[in-house]
Write a structure and sequence with these properties.
Elements lengths: L4 H11 L11 E7 L4 E5 L12 H10 L6 E8 L9 H9 L8 E6 L2 E6 H4 L15
Parallel strand pairs: 3-4
Antiparallel strand pairs: 1-2, 1-3, 4-5
The chain binds zinc ion.
Length: about 140
């Protein structure tokens, strides 16, 4: 699988807006939704650490609150030498807006390169209250 250069560049640019004074670990996410919309997000930390938001969740809620419902592809950039996977909370939030996690490509990149998995690879048995409707908006 080839690296989605445009989506990854959007994630890299988003990481420049990270507010990470505590961890100094800047992350950017870019998500392509059904219909072509792309949302981006950066991590936003808080002195009360538990209130910190990851870049992926910022990108999801930004688009979901605008009416987008189906994630098609995710790119994640960490301003580091080592790529990182989304945390469990972000995987669960991504799955909420994904009717087929095995069809969602997730690229995780850093200054040293990228690796590509599917959302199902990272979250094989997500929690769901009901099966998703693949026809949703
Ligand atoms: Zn996270």
């Amino acid at each position: 699988m080839s690296v989605p250069e445009v989506l990854l560049e959007k994630a890299r640019l988003a990481s420049q807006n990270a507010y990470a004074p505590y961890s100094e670990f800047s992350v950017g996410a870019a998500i392509r939704w059904r219909g072509g919309h792309v949302s981006t997000g950066a991590n936003v930390e808080n002195a009360s650490y538990g209130l910190t938001l990851c870049a992926e969740r910022v990108a999801v809620v930004t688009a979901a609150s605008e009416g987008h419902r189906e994630v098609e592809e995710v790119a994640l950039w960490v301003e580091s030498d080592k790529a990182a996977s989304p945390c469990g909370a972000c995987l669960q939030v991504l799955v909420e807006f994904c009717s087929d996690p095995s069809a969602v490509r997730l690229t995780m990149a850093s200054r040293q390169g990228a690796r590509i998995e599917t959302l199902a690879d990272l979250m094989p048995q997500p929690f769901r209250l009901r099966e998703p409707d693949p026809e949703r908006a």
